[in-house]
Structures are given as structure tokens and as C-alpha cells.
Specification:
By secondary structure, the protein is α/β, with parallel strands linked by helices. Helices cover 42% and strands 9% of the residues. The protein has helices at residues 21-35, 60-67, 81-87, 89-92, 107-117, 129-142, 165-173, 202-227, 255-258, 266-288, 313-317, 319-327, 335-338, 340-347, 372-386, and strands at residues 96-99, 121-126, 147-152, 181-184, 232-236, 294-299, 356-358, 361-362. Strand 1 (96-99), helix 5 (107-117) and strand 2 form a beta-alpha-beta unit. The chain is globular.
């Protein structure tokens, strides 16, 4: 399940003279916050959203989902991965695609089966070999001619990625093969404080650092995809990248801050990792776009998947109750709908390089996502943590 909100950090309203424009703006900010179905709270279990936005207002995505939004692309909140893929089927055919997090029942699996059905050569990734083989067998059973293979590595263990992932990829598809699309789909959400093998806070370590290490490892194959005329890196982020109300630019990517258990907040950590996904895509575009490697990030929607297993487990076990509860706030997407924007970002021609997408259209990310200093800081920290 995913969650979203707005753009630029919410400062505490200043005490302005009564009747001044500043006072009116302060009252308006408080009014917006109080009307929110997800209000800022001090409880560790509750996300603290950043309510200021680069217009429109923070709740636009939720409203769009409920109203059945359709954007300039011709697709919208109810579009399915299959519908999007059919429009761009000629693009998918013959492409080599690696997708992380492809266990059955999730977005990665749905994305993989749709693309494999169109004639793409799809490399699944899971950290569990048995689960990966089940996913691969299911796709092959559905599409007899599907070209699907499996690579096993754990995004929380860099020892399974560095100096190995490229070799695993080439074992699956052939020595020197190009990689046309790297779809960084895998992720975790709102888990208790733990550290990865490299002593990195787990949400940041898995959601960003693992994918950063994978990207760096696969650059030779990505450059060959670019030489073929098509290379994209797609990062699944979330509207939750705006959970930044308790964070600031000085500490958001500071390991001493996010690796400190005493400062840990499950939603701050999730927001930081999803924010990093968007910043990472923007930074890839800046550094590699002129080499033909283009990058994109996206919000898949609010979807009931195993991603939300750490959030009130009894709700996750009772999907009817979960759907009823969240239905009061926004419409929950199903898996085919939740995979649509991934397929769109992977295949749609002439979309904005480095952009953030929502409901199969260009979305509105937090303004900090395109801050040059933050982009450089994230890259430098990521290099250090993976070095």
C-alpha cells in the first residue's frame, strides 16, 4: 500500500498582525492541515505529511483517484497495465527488462507478466529463489513463448549485488547483452528499526541504497541498451515521498541521523527512502542522460499489497476491512491498476526525462526532489555507503 501528500516543508505559522496577508495565509495553512484525512501527529505509527505544495493542493492525487481521473496521456487512475502495454506493444517487443521484487501477488510480478506477454525478454529478481521460480513458472504457463529468467539477490545485502549482479544478468540473458529497462520495483514500508548487512537503516538501505548499487553494477549493460537506442531506469517511489514534515535538508541524507535508532520514526524513514527514489531518478538523468540512459520515478497508487504488512497486521489480514477503511479517504487500486504507471514510464514515448509520474501522467513531486545540492548530497552519500 502507498500513501501521498504535498511539496516543500510546512513551517509553523508565524504570529502576524491580525488581518494581515500573512495572518490569512497562516489561518489557511492551519485550515488545510485540520481538514486533512491524515493529520500530522506525534505518534510513531502515524505519518507526518508536509502540506505545502507546488499547486495544486496536496490532496489532488486522492481526489483524482476518486473522480476517475484521465489525463493528457489518455490514461488515468483506473487504467490497467494491460491497457497501457497494448498501446505501446511495439516498444516492448524485443526489449530486455530487469525488474526487482517480482514475487507473486505484487506489482513487480504483474508488470513482468504483462511485459513478457508482449514479447519482451524479462529478467525477474527476487531474494528468495523458490518464490522467484514460482513467479517465473506462472508467467511461462500463461504465455508459452515467454522469454523469462530469474536472478536472485537481496537488496538489503550488497554482498549479493556488487561484483555479482552483472554476471547474474549476463548468465540469464547472454554475455554482453544490453539492458534496455531497469525497473526498480522492490521496496519495504514502515518496518521496525533494523539495519542492513552494511549497517544502514533498512528502509533507506533496501529502497534506495540497494537499487543504487544495482544501477552502478549494471551500467555496462545499460550503456549497451543506450547504444541500441533505448535505455530507461524506472524507480517506484510513492506519494509518501512527501512525508518530510519532521525532516530538513541538512539531515535528510545524513547517515548519522537516519541510522540512529533513537531518532527513528517509521514514516520519516519511509518518506526519506521514497524521496530518495525520486531524487535518484532526477540525478541519474543529470549524470547519464546525455549518454542515452534516461530515468523516471512514479507513484503507483494506493494499493493493498504485502508492502503494507507492517501496518496494523490484523488489517492487512482482513483485506475487506482495509479496503472499507481506506475507501473512506480514497479509492484503493487493484494490482493491474497499480502496475499501469510502471508500464507507462517504461514504454511511453516522448515523456519527460527525469520526471515523476502519477496515474500514467506527469505528476507533481515535492520541490526538494529537484534541488541540485540535495541531488549531489544523495549521490555522494550513496557512493560512500556502497564503497
Amino acid at each position: 500500500m502507498e500513501i501521498e501528500e504535498s511539496s516543500e516543508t510546512l513551517a509553523q505559522p508565524r504570529a502576524d498582525p491580525k488581518g494581515s496577508a500573512g495572518s490569512q495565509e497562516s489561518r489557511r495553512s492551519r485550515k488545510i492541515a485540520h481538514k486533512s484525512p491524515i493529520v500530522e501527529a506525534k505518534l510513531m505509527e502515524t505519518p507526518s505529511f508536509d502540506f505545502r505544495s507546488n499547486p495544486p493542493t496536496w490532496y489532488e492525487s486522492i481526489v483524482n483517484d476518486r473522480l476517475g481521473f484521465v489525463g493528457p496521456s489518455g490514461f488515468g487512475s483506473a487504467s490497467t497495465a494491460s491497457a497501457v502495454a497494448q498501446k505501446f506493444s511495439s516498444v516492448a517487443k524485443g526489449k530486455t527488462i530487469l525488474i526487482t521484487g517480482c514475487t507473486m501477488g505484487g506489482l513487480g510480478f504483474e508488470t513482468a507478466r504483462i511485459l513478457a506477454g508482449l514479447g519482451a525478454k524479462v529478467v525477474l529478481n527476487t531474494r528468495n529463489k523458490e518464490k522467484g521460480e514460482k513467479a517465473m513458472d506462472a508467467i511461462k504457463a500463461e504465455f508459452k513463448s515467454a522469454d523469462v529468467s530469474l536472478v536472485v539477490f537481496d537488496l538489503g545485502k550488497l554482498s549479493t549485488i556488487q561484483n555479482k549482479a552483472l554476471g547474474l544478468f549476463e548468465e540469464a540473458v547472454g554475455k554482453g547483452a544490453p539492458l534496455h529497462i531497469l525497473l526498480n520495483n522492490a521496496g519495504i514500508m514502515a518496518c521496525p528499526f533494523t539495519l542492513t548487512e552494511q549497517k544502514i537503516e533498512t528502509q533507506f538501505g533496501v529502497n534506495h541504497i540497494g537499487h543504487f548499487a544495482l544501477f552502478k553494477e549494471l551500467i555496462p549493460a545499460l550503456k549497451k541498451g543506450a547504444a541500441d537506442g533505448y535505455c530507461r531506469v524506472v524507480n517506484l517511489s510513492s506519494m509518501g515521498h512527501r512525508i518530510l514534515a519532521n525532516l530538513d535538508k541538512k539531515t535528510i541524507f545524513d547517515p548519522e541521523h537516519f541510522n540512529d535508532e533513537k531518532k527513528y520514526h517509521v514514516w520519516d524513514a519511509y518518506g526519506r527512502s521514497k524521496f530518495a527514489n525520486v531524487v535518484f531518478a532526477s540525478e541519474i538523468e543529470k549524470r547519464y542522460g546525455d549518454q542515452g540512459i534516461h530515468a523516471y520515478s512514479l507513484h503507483p497508487g494506493a494499493i493493498l499489497t504485502n508492502l503494507g504488512r507492517h501496518i496494523i497486521p490484523q488489517w492487512i489480514e482482513n483485506s475487506w476491512l482495509m479496503r472499507k477503511f481506506f475507501g473512506l479517504v480514497w479509492n484503493m487500486k487493484n494490482i493491474p491498476q497499480g502496475s499501469a504507471t510502471s508500464v507507462y514510464a517504461a514504454l511511453a514515448p516522448d515523456i519527460q526525462n527525469g520526471g515523476y509520474f502519477d496515474n500514467c501522467n506527469l505528476g507533481k513531486a515535492h520541490l526538494w526532489c529537484f534541488d541540485e545540492d540535495l541531488g549531489k548530497t544523495l549521490w555522494e552519500v550513496s557512493e560512500k555507503l556502497t564503497g
